[in-house]
Design goal:
Layout: E1 35-36, E2 52-56, E3 63-64, E4 77-82, E5 89-96, E6 102-105, E7 111-113, E8 123-124, E9 131-132, E10 139-143, E11 148-157, E12 163-166, E13 172-176, E14 191-200, E15 203-207, E16 213-214, E17 218-223, E18 229-232, H1 239-254, E19 262-264, E20 270-274, H2 276-282, H3 292-301, E21 307-310, E22 317-323, E23 326-329, E24 336-337, H4 341-346, H5 361-376, E25 386-387, H6 403-410, E26 435-438, E27 443-448
Parallel strand pairs: 1-19, 4-27, 21-25
Antiparallel strand pairs: 2-13, 3-7, 4-10, 5-6, 5-9, 5-11, 6-7, 8-12, 11-14, 12-13, 14-15, 15-26, 16-20, 17-18, 17-27, 19-20, 21-22, 22-23, 23-24
InterPro entries: Glyco_hydro_64, Glyco_hydro_64_fam, Glyco_hydro_64_N_2, Osmotin/thaumatin-like_sf
Organism: Mytilinidion resinicola
Protein name: GH64 domain-containing protein
Length: about 450
């Protein structure tokens, strides 16, 4: 699961009825160019769990709705700081209100309630939901009119398009957001990024994640109720270009399509760097043999000695051994098959999929730790027979490894921000989460273009 799983946009079970399951049709060009986008129209939108917020439609409304019952304590304040060396920056806020209605924040500080009017084809949102930031060096202050969940605060160099679609006959609606890895999405040619958050009566949880892609660089800090400050500095300014350059270099060394993770416009301008799991949506056969020899060596190694998983819980240490093509762990309700690249890069499919309804506590603990070990290539290192036990200086030190994650962390200023779903698996005391949270937040500051504090 991604770092923000508990507050994620939508679950696969609630996907829109006509959601498209086929692989995205990408414009994969020569190895030196990466993916070149060709922004399309509403007909080119591909609806998935990653780019929809599912909820309900406010009864009898389409547009701004007055909500007088909102209390002042529910009105989270933001300071949006523009540190970006580029074109006009626009902000957008999306999510669900306390009644599960799909909402977007309008420039005048009120909620806009998108209504698909029963349409099963995405309809463009026409409300005044673009919040322009001032010039570089200025701060724009906004305030939410009420609690919000499964939310994102988007920032774009230019303008983004959002759509709404009917998902059922009972008033269900899906807010269709930009899709990072669809080269023909209407927003494909825009440089953008987002912060995820939920703010409710339990407080604020906000997160910066690079699990899907690296785009417009964002950072944040929060003033908590007691006056203390939590900060996530995120990536360095210009990090996407640095990551792309490193990926291009390593692609020339190992022959793997790391350079294809770089998504550019027709003029060669870099827009974003995709995580490998998102690239595999475009090219399912990529990296097909990348981990094969390593996996076979791991299987051979742990056929004659224990791999110990420290569950970092009351389950304690769990002994695992391979037998044939599976890994068995003591007390686990099921075994682990040899993973494929999508499993290792994504940590939420195949070998590492967790059945939330049926898997036991040991499986919940083993799967993330095992996947993190494969992603960071630590299973064959000295001390790697206990997971997790090695600190971050041992991660990504030998091939094959998760190069995208390696380079994301290389350019993080404070080593915070997930680069794959289980980046929070570390020896006790280490923290890679790009999270701020508090029960009584006073102010959330988001920096666009790099941290300055």
């Amino acid at each position: 699961m991604r770092a923000f799983a508990a507050l994620a946009i939508a679950t696969a079970a609630s996907l829109i009825g006509q959601a498209l399951a086929a692989p995205i049709s990408g414009r994969l060009l020569s190895r030196s160019t990466g993916i070149v986008v060709t922004p399309g129209t509403v007909d080119d939108i591909i609806i998935t769990a990653d780019n929809t917020v599912n909820g309900t439609v406010h009864p009898s409304h389409n547009g701004t709705v007055s909500v007088p019952r909102i209390q002042a304590t529910e009105k989270l304040s933001f300071a949006l700081v523009n540190n970006f060396d580029g074109a006009q920056i626009s902000a957008y806020v999306t999510g669900r209100d306390v009644d599960n209605n799909i909402v977007m924040l309008q420039a005048d500080g009120t909620w806009y309630y998108p209504n698909p009017q029963g349409s099963t084809t995405p309809i463009a949102i026409t409300g005044n939901v673009n919040i322009p930031l001032g010039a570089k060096g200025t701060t724009t202050n906004i305030q939410l009119p009420g609690y919000i969940s499964s939310a994102r605060v988007y920032f774009a160099e230019g303008n983004l398009q959002f759509f709404v679609v009917s998902i059922d006959s009972n008033g269900g609606a899906g807010l269709v957001e930009p899709a990072a890895n669809n080269p023909s999405d209407p927003n494909a040619g825009v440089n953008w990024g987002f912060v995820e958050l939920t703010n409710n009566d339990g407080g604020l949880y906000a997160n910066i994640s690079y699990v899907d892609f690296v785009g417009l660089v964002l950072s944040m800090s929060m003033i908590a109720g007691d006056g203390s400050v939590q900060t996530v500095k995120g990536l360095q300014a210009g990090a996407a270009s640095s990551i792309c350059n490193d990926l291009t270099t390593v692609a020339g060394q190992d022959g793997q399509p790391w350079d294809q993770l770089c998504m550019k416009d027709s003029n060669g301008k870099l827009l974003r760097v995709l995580a490998p799991t998102k690239y595999l949506d475009l090219a399912p056969d990529a990296f097909s043999s990348y981990f094969t020899d390593h996996i076979n060596t791991v299987w051979s190694t742990y056929s004659t000695k224990d791999l110990t998983i420290n569950t970092q819980s009351t389950s304690g240490d769990v002994a695992c051994r391979t037998s044939g093509d599976v890994l068995n762990c003591a007390g686990d309700n099921r075994s682990y098959a040899k993973p494929v690249p999508q499993d290792i890069f994504g940590c939420n499919s195949g070998t590492f999929y967790i059945d939330r309804a049926n898997d036991n506590a040991i499986h919940y603990a083993v799967a993330p730790r095992l996947c993190a070990a494969f992603a960071r290539t630590t299973l064959l290192l000295s001390g790697g027979d206990v997971q997790p036990s090695l600190d971050s200086s041992s991660y990504y030190t030998t091939a094959p490894t998760h190069r995208y994650s390696q380079y994301v962390h290389k350019y993080e200023t404070d080593n915070k921000g997930y680069a794959f779903s289980y980046d929070d698996v570390n020896p006790s005391g280490e923290n890679a989460a790009g999270v701020v949270s508090d029960a009584n937040p006073q102010l959330l500051t988001i920096y666009v273009g790099g941290y300055a504090g």
